[in-house]
Amino acid sequence: MSGWARLDPRVIWVDLARMALSLVPLFATTVLFGGELTGSVLWPAAIIAVTGVLASVGDLLRWVKTRYRITDELLEVRTGLLVRSHRTIRRDRIRSVEATAKLRHRLAGLRVVTIRAGDRTATGEVASLRLDAVSAPTAEELQTELPAGSRTATPAAGQVPGETVLATFRWQWLPYNAFTVWALLSAAGLGWGAHWLGGMVGLDLFGSVLEAARRSPLPLAPTITLAVLIAGALGVVAVGVAFVAEQWQFRLVRADTPTGTVLRTSHGLFRTRRVDRDDGRLRGVELRRPLLWRWTTATETSVVSTGLGAAGMLAGGATVLPKAPAADARRVAEQILGDPAPLRAPLTRHPLAALRRRLGWAVALGAALTGLAWWLGRVTALPERLWLAGGVLVPVALGLALLAYRSLGHALVGPHLVTSAGLNRTTVVLRRGAVIGVTLRQSVLQRRLGLVTLRATTAAGQGSYAAPDLATADGVALADATVPGLLTPYRAVPATVGGVLAADVTR
Amino acid sequence: MADLTEVLTPPRHRVERRAMGWWALRTAATTAVAGGVLLAGYLLITPWRPWTGPALLVVLGLGLAHLLVTPPWRYAVHRWEVTDEAVYVRTGWFVREWRIAPLSRVQTVDTVRGPVQQALGLATVTVTTASAAGPVTLVGLDQHTARRVAGELSAITARTRGDAT
């Protein structure tokens, strides 16, 4: 591929089809169900039509004006009608290539390709380019050819590149992902959607539900409980279906490419998504165990990789496994790291002073909220006994403080730094070689308790990972051992302290 | 063993005394803006006075306390040092931050001088690494010192190859 290429012409057909589809609700409300044309029905339909048509026209113009080119060194994209832009990414800076396809793209055999680079833009975001959309074979070609700036020829047709399967979809994951706080919200969304659709054909769904509730033989409280339970169940089903549709045929593999290996996830029923992450950019893994689901051992697994910054993490580029039982997550994480030791090593507990700090904060916060409640109860219409809620609040806060303390831990295992912290017990395994700086943070209160928070800064992932509330001397020793020799010239006691080896000090 | 100073030697150089003036002016400016908005609200919107009045007093009080307390406190805490191997700073007041980054991982070195800093003859040296956690900043340096330090840092980092990630 040299010369300037256009995006795939099938984008036009997709756009025309989308434009036609967006006009359907308006057509349906006005022509098919001609009768009730109230504002609440007409407006959403009109908004859908207008935004749909505008988006399609905009997309057509974008197709006309977009060209891209791949040279030996650069990926270039020219686009824009009013504001012309010419953006380039150096091929040796490419960190991940992602292909997604919504249903409309899949029907047309198209893929949207997003290329992320290791450079950061002026605003601190990871630089990325989007090709929306190219044909599926072209996307495949881009995914094999672009990562790590390969200049060798792509493997001959028919040759199956080697791959190791790390995980595939399992139905056991379904309950872990269906029971979320989003279930109630999505039930509300579904309810509103149904009400709106009903309104289109002249049904008042809310009205009939309220009527049914009024006629219910049960008293008020059980009726509300029942309604919430039904809504919750509906929401769980909806979230579950959405999860299966999104993660359908989920596969996490380590695949060979001409220049190395990549971690590849592919999944999706209607909207497919395939992400390749260059193994050379991998710096560690992160396991997160949400507090509410701790009893089920549900764990989220993501990779710490350069070029997948905070924005990439939100977009899901870093997540390599959906919420799954801890055993699955741990097995996958160990395989990603290629070394089981870091996640099996016992973590060093943090001093009891760290628990005192958390308990202190819990009491202070609980007292402050109780005080606020007391004041609100006096000056506003809220019940005057509101402050009594503090009697529940403070013990809960103390319990959370204890849980947060129990999450704390750290270890140096061979080439890896392992930290664990937070209510959502987040364990991060980070390659020591990837640590590009150290921050030690100490507030006046921490100083009195003899604690220090160590932050290891890195080019990958969130940019820095913390080991909160270490004993002061241990913090310095850990920092010095993580990046050997960095702090040695400044240490007053340059020896082994508190069990942490000042490992291989070279200078 | 509680204070980090007992186990870790702080960076060698203090910042300029004038930096206290800069910090004070910054606080004064922020307080003036916030107080000005509240004062305008107090004068113009009569029914809200029971709320804007106390808020104005609180903002002015906090601003004044910040103005009196933080500059000398910061001056006592802020320190910096640049060696052939690393850039090492201590910043903050209530919360102290000791940051150290090896020069082999430094990507760019900038000097920044705002209008107030120019008037006081001060400059900030910003040392960025590949991390999203933000640059290491050396604040409150004399402008000539800052230029010399930035020059030395650039020279050292130019010698290191690779993308410093």
From TrEMBL, chain A:
Which Pfam families does the record associate with it?
bPH_2
Q: Please state every residue range assigned to the domain named YdbS-like PH.
A: 63-145, 418-474
Classification via InterPro entries? UCP026631 (IPR014529), YdbS-like_PH (IPR005182)
Which chain regions cross the lipid bilayer? 12-35, 41-61, 179-198, 218-245, 359-376, 388-405
Sorted keywords for this record are: Membrane, Transmembrane, Transmembrane helix
Q: What is the protein name given in its UniProt record?
A: YdbS-like PH domain-containing protein
UniProtKB/TrEMBL annotation, chain B:
The alphabetical list of record keywords is: Membrane, Transmembrane, Transmembrane helix
Tell me one Pfam family matched here: bPH_2
Work out whether the entry's keyword set contains Transmembrane. yes
Give yes or no: UniProt keyword rRNA-binding.
no
Q: Where is the YdbS-like PH domain?
A: 76-151
Question: Which superkingdom does the taxonomy of this entry point to?
Answer: Bacteria
Spans traversing the lipid bilayer: 21-45, 51-69
| InterPro entries assigned | YdbS-like_PH (IPR005182)
What protein name does the entry list?
A: YdbS-like PH domain-containing protein
Write down the species: Actinophytocola xinjiangensis
